[in-house]
Amino acid sequence: LLVLLILIHYRKCISMNESIPTDGVYMSDSNSNVKDAPAFHENPYCKALNNAKDIQFDHADVEGNAQTGPVVRLSFASLFDALGTCLKDESSVLLLYSLVHGNCDFQEYVLVRTDLDTLLMPILEMLYNASRKTSNQIYMLLIILLILSQDSTFNASVHKLVLPSVPWYQERLMHQTSLGSLMVVVLIRTIKYNLSKLRDVYLHTNCLAILANMGPHAHRLSAYASQRLVSLFDMLSRKYAKLAELKNDKALKVMSDQMEADIISDDTSTELHIYTDFLRIVLEIINAILTYALPRNPEVVYAIL
After folding, report:
1. H helix or E strand, kind and range, residue 163
2. Angle CA 250–256–259, to nearest 5
């Protein structure tokens, strides 16, 4: 697996003095300025992985497509099941990311599977244990979820798939909760962990983007997930109010070192701007649920009231 990952992710930069092969394997533009935009050789392993087809795919369809050269054929069903059992390993997560990001056929296959919990439960468990992961590992997991959440079928499926129990979730017993509700709870937990420890703006944005994609398709969110969503808004608004108050206090004080005052004021303004964006996104998420899925989410209304 590690050798495969090295092969598909290796990119050789084309140097100024290097002669460009003319057999059509490498793509380059002789008129382009290499200093402005570095050019890279095309990676045949990456291309093969991205064009791989399901072994159950019709041969006639493959021949009908404009494919140059032989097409790698593998069992998507076996690959899906194998990834589900191995996702606690970081290299398996990177392979899943490479497939979901690069191979449209595999991404479509994942989206039509009815047992999405096979892949999602290990991902959510790893996010639940975010304190044991590096920020890069958390990013990879979130980007996989973000890519999948862009599909409306996926968002509808996760809310309808009911889990009998979630044994690894320690804070609360979760029986007969939907996979969508569990995703909301774990993503909000990741946001709160990031606020207190990592303080990474892009990690926040990814989490909130997934929730925003899921919002209009929310279906019977659990009481716990609804309460967590409203408490997230409450926490962010309190932090925003505190920063706004701090900024006003600093504006009123006349400090001896004006430069230091300006630096502190700039830092506060930046953080205030970030929290303004976060609050706006959370309000959009809640608004999307109320606008498009109100009759199906009484628990959200109850939590807001």
Report:
1. strand 162-165
2. 70
